[in-house]
Write a structure and sequence with these properties.
The complex is a heterodimer of chains A (about 110) and B (about 120). By secondary structure, chain A is mainly β. Chain A has no helices and 11 strands. The model of chain A has no long low-confidence stretch (mean pLDDT about 95). Chain B is an all-beta fold. Chain B is about 0% helix and about 55% strand.
Chain lengths: ~110, ~120
C-alpha cells in the first residue's frame, strides 16, 4: 500500500517568509509525528498527534512553529517568519495504534531558507 | 530523560566482511530500542526493534542487535557486508512504557562498503 507522503519535497524560502509543509500519513494510522533533521544530524522530535489531538509539542523550537491535524488525517507544519536556522529536512512519520509503536517515515521536505 | 550515543560517525568495511555499529543508551526507565537505516533520498526504514522480549533481535537484510543491560549497549551487527548496505544508520531509543511516543535519535553512523 501507499506509504507516508510529504509535499513539497523541496522548498526554498526567503528569510521572513511563511511556509507550510504537508504530510499524508498511511491510511488508518492514528498517530502522526513531525521531526526536524539538520544537516549531518539525527532527526529531532517536534510534535505528536493522536487523531486530531496534539498530545505532545515539547519539541517545537519556538512559537514560530505550529502544527495542525484538524480531521485526524493530513497534517500541516507551518513555520512563520522563517530564519536561516530553520533550514533542515522535516520528516513526518505515522504509526498504527496496534503496531507496537513502529513509526513509518515519509521521504521528508528539505527546507532551505536564504 | 533518555539519550543514545553512537560511538562512530563513520565506519568503512570491505564487502563480505563483518559490520559492527556501536550504540550506547541512557535511560531512567526500561527503554525500547531501534535501529533505523536511511539511504540517500529515501525515507528512514526500520531495521529492527527491541521491546523487552528476547535480548538478541534479528532484523531485515541479515542485521541483528543484542541488548546488553549491564553495558547499556545495543550494537548492530551483520556477518557479511553487501554494497547495498552503504547508508546512514541511526540508533534510537523510546520510552514507550511511560506513554511518551517520541523517538530520540543518535547522531548517526555512515557506513561505507568498499568493493
Amino acid at each position: 500500500g501507499a506509504g507516508v507522503s510529504q509535499s513539497p519535497r523541496y522548498k526554498v524560502a526567503k528569510r521572513g517568509q511563511d511556509v507550510a509543509l504537508r504530510c499524508d500519513p498511511i491510511s488508518g494510522h492514528v498517530s502522526l509525528f513531525w521531526y526536524q533533521q539538520a544537516l549531518g544530524q539525527g532527526p529531532e522530535f517536534l510534535t505528536y498527534f493522536q487523531n486530531e489531538a496534539q498530545l505532545d509539542k515539547s519539541g517545537l523550537p519556538s512559537d514560530r512553529f505550529f502544527a495542525e491535524r484538524p480531521e485526524g488525517s493530513v497534517s500541516t507544519l507551518k513555520i512563520q517568519r522563517t530564519q536561516q536556522e530553520d533550514s533542515a529536512v522535516y520528516l513526518c512519520a505515522s504509526s498504527h495504534r496496534d503496531s507496537n509503536y513502529e513509526q513509518y517515515f515519509g521521504p521528508g521536505t528539505r527546507l532551505t531558507v536564504t | 530523560a533518555q539519550s543514545v550515543t553512537q560511538l562512530d560517525s563513520h565506519v568503512s568495511v570491505s564487502e563480505g566482511t563483518p559490520v559492527l555499529l556501536r550504540c550506547n543508551y541512557s535511560s531512567s526507565y526500561s527503554p525500547s530500542l531501534f535501529w533505523y537505516v536511511q539511504h540517500p533520498n529515501k525515507g528512514l526504514q526500520l531495521l529492527l526493534k527491541y521491546t523487552s522480549a528476547a535480548t538478541l533481535v534479528k532484523g531485515i537484510n541479515g542485521f541483528e542487535a543484542e541488548f546488553k543491560k549491564s553495558e547499556t549497549s545495543f550494537h548492530l551487527t551483520k556477518p557479511s557486508a553487501h554494497m547495498s548496505d552503504a547508508a546512514e544508520y541511526f540508533c534510537v531509543v523510546s520510552l514507550l512504557d511511560t506513554g511518551r511516543r517520541a523517538l530520540t535519535f543518535g547522531s548517526g553512523t555512515r557506513l561505507q562498503v568498499q568493493p
